[in-house]
Recover the amino acids of this structure.
């Protein structure tokens, strides 16, 4: 009898633990709180260009009109850097130094005569061959380590070519690569610059070493090798390794059979992160963890796309353990990851070009999804650091016209 009673008590204890765990798991979704701040609020489109510490560099309309601005999350102060007549098409913020590419909509010589700003402390450092002008402005002190990289696209000397340029405070403009080829993306790791380059017939990953001045093929394999969405501040570098989207296993029967590969920066060894007959894309890294989106196209009897079943997965490279975080019939994009959170934009409508993107999150510690924003319009996440998320949001405007929002994730 004692043994039976003991077994019954043990079973009741297990049931109680299960009920407590279920209750906690159910409450996790509501226990995550988002403290939301609207950084801009006009009918103009706003584009996040760069983030450095607490400072956000963005192009759009502020109190001073259309131009280039910095918003400091710590002080909540907005600073107008430029609101002149020329259009800013690209901005970079590193070590409190801003670089910008200005595109003249009229006479390009007007910048050469009057400088980059209207009475400000901008300094023109370079006129490109494609009617772009590169300018810099010192915000809070100039550091020699600052580098402003940009990809100049267009027809140069009668040949279509993309060339990679770099401006530094101590050496001025340097042409990193002007080989006649198409180039996509720019990523920086210590003294290296990486990009995807099609000079061999398909896209491989090439690199430039600032220390040696050498340009070399970093990854060369069949099919295309693409860095992740660099323009959205994705992190593709972990603890001494880099990851990318790799098409070496794509075939005519399965042209979207992309996988995730990586390379150890110390040993030079190439390794597989994720490999299946589906498309793995959008890899992001934090420490030794890699996350990505595994895509499955949902079709009707005529092979017409009717939806997506996108699964978010991650792999701990130190243990080799693969986790499946979210499996739902939705289209996902803009995947980002910090030390404990994964965030992304998600559309529940069949086609990804529908205006229906919401912002979702996932807690790695609690193994629980939560909602960041389900406002009207689209929410496109652009950056995450710790528990702070930045996104572009069209809730107050027409489709494609976004303001900038920030949110702090807390667990109550």
């Amino acid at each position: 009898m004692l043994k039976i009673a003991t077994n019954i008590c043990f079973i009741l204890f297990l049931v109680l633990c299960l009920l407590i765990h279920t209750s906690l798991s159910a409450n996790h979704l509501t226990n995550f709180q988002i403290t939301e701040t609207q950084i801009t609020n006009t009918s103009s489109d706003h584009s996040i260009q760069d983030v450095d510490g607490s400072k956000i560099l963005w192009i759009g309309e502020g109190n001073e009109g259309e131009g280039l601005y910095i918003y400091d999350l710590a002080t909540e102060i907005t600073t107008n850097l430029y609101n002149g007549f020329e259009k800013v098409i690209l901005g970079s913020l590193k070590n409190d130094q801003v670089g910008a590419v200005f595109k003249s909509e009229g006479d390009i010589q007007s910048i050469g005569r009057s400088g980059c700003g209207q009475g400000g402390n901008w300094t023109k450092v370079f006129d490109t061959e494609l009617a772009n002008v590169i300018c810099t402005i010192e915000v809070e002190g100039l550091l020699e380590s600052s580098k402003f990289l940009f990809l100049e696209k267009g027809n140069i000397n009668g040949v279509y070519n993309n060339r990679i340029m770099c401006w530094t405070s101590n050496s001025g403009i340097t042409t990193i690569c002007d080989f006649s080829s198409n180039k996509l993306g720019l990523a920086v790791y210590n003294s290296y610059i990486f990009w995807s380059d099609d000079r061999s017939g398909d896209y491989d990953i090439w690199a430039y070493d600032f220390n040696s001045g050498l340009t070399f093929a970093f990854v060369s394999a069949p099919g295309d090798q693409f860095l992740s969405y660099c323009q959205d501040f994705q992190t593709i570098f972990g603890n001494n390794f880099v990851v990318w989207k790799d098409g070496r296993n794509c075939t005519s029967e399965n042209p979207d059979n992309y996988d995730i590969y990586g390379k150890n920066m110390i040993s030079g060894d190439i390794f597989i992160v994720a490999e299946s007959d589906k498309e793995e894309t959008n890899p992001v890294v934090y420490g030794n963890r890699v996350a990505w989106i595994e895509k499955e196209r949902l079709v009707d009897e005529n092979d017409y796309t009717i939806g997506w079943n996108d699964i978010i997965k991650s792999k701990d490279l130190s243990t080799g353990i693969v986790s499946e975080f979210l499996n739902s019939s939705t289209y996902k994009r803009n995947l980002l990851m910090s030390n404990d959170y994964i965030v992304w934009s998600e559309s529940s409508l069949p086609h990804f070009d529908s205006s229906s993107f919401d912002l979702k999150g996932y807690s790695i510690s609690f193994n629980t999804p939560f909602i960041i924003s389900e406002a009207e319009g689209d929410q496109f996440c652009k950056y995450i650091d710790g528990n702070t998320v930045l996104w572009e949001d069209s809730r107050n405007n027409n489709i494609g016209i976004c303001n900038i929002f920030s949110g702090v994730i807390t667990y109550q």
Q: What stands out?
A: The helical segments are 2-31, 109-114. The longest strand covers residues 147-156. The chain is about 10% helix and 55% strand.
